[in-house]
Design brief:
The structure is a single chain. About 5% of the residues lie in helices and about 45% in strands. The chain is mainly beta and about 120 residues long.
């Protein structure tokens, strides 16, 4: 079963930036939309950004204008550039498949912790 591998998290001050990266092996990446999700303590996992196979992007209102998702179909990677970070962005960030119909099987990876604090 394919598991995405996330990296790039860390501790950053409010207003700072981080870039998250995710690599997905196999055909899962090329057959599905991909996105970045996050889960804060005591909250449900939420989708914050997504990109279709063709590169059409969508963002949650809470991150619009601050986060940018990009996918490289040749490398099977999807990145999330996060700017103007706020304390409420603190969460574990996960890369995952997006879409009502999923082609292939996969499971959640370990995620990467993002902490925004002074």
């Amino acid at each position: 079963q394919v598991q995405p591998v996330e990296s790039g998290g860390g501790l950053v001050q409010p207003g700072g930036s981080l870039r998250l990266s995710c690599v997905v092996s196999g055909s899962i990446f090329s057959r599905n939309g991909m996105g970045w999700y996050r889960q804060a303590p005591g909250k449900q996992r939420e989708l914050v950004a997504s990109a279709t196979i063709g590169g059409i992007t969508n963002y949650a209102d809470s991150v619009k204008g601050r986060f940018t998702i990009s996918r490289d179909n040749a490398k099977s990677t999807v990145d999330l550039q996060m700017n103007s970070l706020k304390p409420e962005d603190t969460a574990v960030y996960y890369c995952g498949v997006v879409g009502r119909i999923v082609y292939g099987t996969w499971s959640w990876g370990q995620g990467t912790q993002v902490t925004v604090s002074s």
